[in-house]
Amino acid sequence: MNHEHFCQLLKTRGFDFYTGVPCSILSSIIKYMSEDNVFSYVSATREDEAIGLAVGAYMAGKQPVVLMQNSGLGQSVNALTSLALLYKIPMLLLISWRGFEGKDAPEHLYMGKCMMNFLDIMKIPAEIAETTRLTEQLNQLSKKMCKQKTPVALILKKGVIT
After folding, report:
1. At what angle do helices 3-12 and 27-35 cross, to 10 degrees?
2. How far is it, in rounded angstroms, from Cα 131 to Cα 135?
3. 34 alpha carbon, distance to own chain's centre
4. Torsion from C-alpha of 107, 125, 96, 84, nearest 10 degrees
5. In the chain, count of helices (H) and strands (E)?
6. Which of 20, 25, 46, 157 sits in a 20 to 30 Å window from 6, CA-based?
7. Better-scored residue on pLDDT, 89 or 103
8. pTM here?
9. Which residues of 129-162 are buried (b: 16+ CB within 10 A; e: fewer)?
10. Phi, psi (deg, nearest 5) at residue 154
11. Range with the lowest mean pLDDT among 12-16, 19-23, 99-103, 127-131?
């Protein structure tokens, strides 16, 4: 799916605050959001900082999206468990799947293997994005996020968003 179309899908589902940490898989999305004045993208230096920014945005009436690679999921565990999950702050986590099927730089391989289990342990509902089902998956995750008042995750493999 084209990154512009994907960003518009997020916008039409009510997401109106975006923050995150750079990742090559997410670069076209981040670049588009950063250059388009319609999207309020705030760059973060660390993933736990992005979670904090998203919580603040939610408290100010926004619906946040946090962009990160899966290694950043490990970095953000404390912010997720002691803040977002504890206080039931809904947000969409867009997580790039680095190390998928053992194909990536060595530092991404371990988190690539255990990411889905990691999300399951934290009880964060997650979907692996499929180009043909992306609209349906975003709808399902958005409903779950609002109903359960919880972070949810959409996992993006390389090439799903162009």
Report:
1. 60
2. 8
3. 16
4. -80
5. 7, 6
6. 46
7. 89
8. 0.95
9. beeeebeebbeebbeebeeeebbbbbbbbeebbe
10. -115, 120
11. 99-103
